[in-house]
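Students often ask why we bother encoding 3D structure as a string. The short answer is that it lets us treat folding as translation between two languages. Here is a chain of 259 residues written in the first language.
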Amino acid sequence: MKTQLTKQMKKVVSVDPWLALKEFTTARIALGRAGSSIRTEDWLAFKLDHAKARDAVHSELDEAVLESCLTGLNSQIIHVQSQINSKSDYLKRPDLGRFLNTDSIARLNNIQHGADLVIISEGLSAMAVQSHASHVVSALLPMLKSSNWSLAPIIVAKYGRVAIEDDIGARLHAKMAIILIGERPGLRSSDSLGAYLVFGPKTSNTDANRNCISNIRESGLSYEKAAETIYYLLNEAKSRQLSGVQIKDNRTLVELGIG
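And here it is in the second language, the structure alphabet:
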């Protein structure tokens, strides 16, 4: 009876022919099927990834833990906040997440102005910032210091959107700004960190003025590779006095003798 039931189940459960490719990607491929539906194990995996994405969006950044990780880098850390006061409003009002509140504006008056670069962080996935931001900064700072970049304090911007780097950078008269921010969680990447850099930060900038390095995480772009890419783009932007769509990462082309 058991043998007969097993044979019947094998007929119902269909293995996807792409199954062998799953070891090369975390993408949701080769799910197979059980009758007219997907297999139970794949359905449960989907529900788990969906729950992780929801948790990432609604989680709060533990600023004290982040500061303890950043403190060992011998950099001054300043805490500011956007015009948002809660995670709920942060998700509903992205426009208010692009600008500092009144108290934070006053706090910036006592910070060094005119630096080459200001580094800030926050975003849609607090766990991404919590897990990866300090590692990227740790890999990036030695490169910047060896090239005599003038660095403003690290700004931890609570409830900040990408464009808050323009508001902060402009108020500090920084030549460039970069924000390390938790990216919108995907179903297989709830902890992905992004880095957005901009030359000449000002509130009139658009996304076309920024360069983005994304998918920074342990199973994505490594901290070292991310720092190298950021450093390359920062130097390109500084040299050419612009950023955004006109700046490309041509290192591979150059190495191949094409660029």
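Translate back mentally: DSSP finds nine helices and eight strands in the chain. Keep this in mind for the problem set.
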